[in-house]
């Protein structure tokens, strides 16, 4: 059975969900070789990154996801909401340091109003016309739709008219509804997460897709999640990258006793590269995997590391070592030392500079 699956992969035939699940039985290095050959054919030794800044404007949230350490309603005792001018000032500072993208993601704050969410984008774009704004997850869009009695289409059109260029992939977590019911009850449903991205793509815009793994989900849940993304990508072609996010264990209410091994994480990256044959890029987001494992993941099918970040609050609240981002020269040096070619990209994967 495994040899037949390997043969299909080498012949560039699409594999099924059951076959993808079976790939977990392969030895790690053999699986890595399969995924690595796909990655190398697509990108050679290039490893992509961007110079970006994460901005998290508020941590006040009406939802209570069990895995979250960022929300002020749970483990974080310091609630805050930035002013529009604070958001603009942070973007300006980031731009002065070379950032090409601001990644703006917040909690679901019912106190600040719809204008606070969308007008800050317009003000950033007015101040910095060249900067790429990646903002509002499908979970945030669902929250705004419910809170202000607007359709998804209306919220999305407001985003676009106020300067949002692309959507991040957050809020996907795991699509299996039983798992969602346990880890993020009340958040956007899997069906609506996919619907929101489909509407976004219909506007001629690109987005990313994530998967939070390493908590209470099964391997089959992960493959099911990827399959739903693959089906939508067949339909729209609107996803830039798939980003498997490694669950962060600190300061939250999700009681996970056994955490993933590096072996399991790398296998999941590799299977994603093989199974998601219609996704251009697979990102090892170093903020959740650690920089060392993200670099190793470049040998297991991944071709992207995200970016310098500059500052990040959501993953670091749960224990990730990403609060102050990564120095550009150090980042480039680490990629080179790993045997790959650092390629600075824009948010849509146009190559800007080969380091």
Number of domains: 1
By CATH's scheme, which homologous superfamily applies? Aldolase class I
Shape: globular
Separation, N- and C-terminal Cα atoms = 43 Å
Give me the secondary-structure category.
Answer: alpha/beta
Could you name the CATH topology? TIM Barrel
**What's the tally of helices?**
14
Order of helices and strands: HHHEEHEHEHHHHEHEHEHHEHEE
**Major sheet characteristics:** 4 strands, mixed
Q: In total, how many beta strands?
A: 10
Give the strand content. Answer: 5-15%
As laid out across the biggest beta sheet, the strand order is 8-1-9-10
The helix content is 40-55%
In short:
The chain contains 14 helices and ten strands. It has 355 residues and is α/β, with parallel strands linked by helices. α11 links the parallel β6 (239-246) and β7 (281-282).
Topology:
Blueprint: H1 2-10, H2 17-22, H3 28-43, E1 46-50, E2 52-55, H4 84-96, E3 101-104, H5 114-127, E4 132-135, H6 138-147, H7 152-161, H8 177-183, H9 190-202, E5 207-213, H10 219-236, E6 239-246, H11 262-275, E7 281-282, H12 286-289, H13 291-297, E8 304-307, H14 328-337, E9 341-345, E10 351-354
Parallel strand pairs: 1-8, 1-9, 2-3, 3-4, 5-6, 6-7
Antiparallel strand pairs: 9-10
Helix pairs in contact: 3-11, 4-5, 6-7, 6-9, 9-10
Structure explained in plain terms:
With 355 residues, this protein is an alpha/beta fold. It has one domain (27-55, 135-354): Alpha-Beta Barrel (TIM Barrel), CATH 3.20.20. 43% of the residues lie in helices and 13% in strands. It has 14 helices and 10 strands. It has a 4-stranded mixed sheet. Helix 11 (262-275) links the parallel strand 6 (239-246) and strand 7. Helix 6 crosses helix 9. Mean pLDDT is 89; it is low at 312-323.
């Amino acid at each position: 059975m495994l040899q037949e699956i390997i043969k299909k992969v080498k012949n560039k035939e699409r594999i099924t969900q059951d076959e993808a699940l079976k790939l977990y039985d392969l030895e790690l290095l053999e699986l890595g070789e399969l995924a690595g050959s796909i990655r190398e054919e697509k990108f050679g030794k290039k490893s992509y990154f961007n110079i970006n800044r994460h901005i998290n404007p508020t941590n006040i949230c009406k939802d209570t996801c069990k895995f979250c350490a960022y929300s002020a309603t749970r483990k974080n005792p310091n609630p805050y909401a930035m002013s529009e001018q604070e958001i603009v000032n942070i973007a300006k500072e980031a731009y002065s340091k070379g950032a090409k993208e601001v990644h703006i993601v917040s909690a679901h704050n019912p106190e600040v109003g719809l204008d606070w969410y969308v007008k800050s984008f317009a003000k950033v774009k007015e101040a910095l016309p060249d900067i790429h704004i990646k903002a509002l997850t499908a979970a945030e869009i669902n929250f705004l739709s419910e809170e202000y009695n607007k359709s998804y289409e209306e919220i999305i059109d407001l985003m676009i008219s106020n300067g949002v260029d692309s959507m991040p992939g957050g809020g996907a977590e795991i699509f299996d509804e039983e798992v969602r019911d346990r880890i993020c009850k009340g958040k956007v449903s899997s069906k609506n997460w996919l619907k929101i991205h489909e509407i976004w793509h219909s506007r001629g815009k690109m987005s990313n897709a994530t998967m939070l793994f390493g908590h209470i989900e099964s391997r089959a849940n992960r493959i099911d999640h990827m399959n739903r993304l693959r089906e939508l990508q067949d339909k729209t072609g609107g996803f830039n990258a798939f980003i498997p996010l490694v669950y962060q264990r600190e300061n939250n209410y999700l009681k996970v006793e056994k955490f993933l091994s590096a072996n399991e994480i790398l296998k999941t990256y590799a299977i994603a590269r093989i199974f998601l044959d219609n996704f251009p890029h697979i990102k090892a987001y170093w903020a959740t995997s650690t920089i060392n494992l993200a670099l190793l993941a470049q040998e297991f099918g991944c071709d992207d590391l995200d970016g310098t970040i500059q500052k990040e609050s959501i993953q670091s609240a749960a224990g990730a070592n990403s609060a102050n981002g990564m120095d550009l020269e150090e980042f480039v040096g680490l990629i080179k030392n790993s045997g790959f070619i650092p390629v600075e990209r824009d948010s849509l994967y146009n190559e800007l500079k080969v380091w």
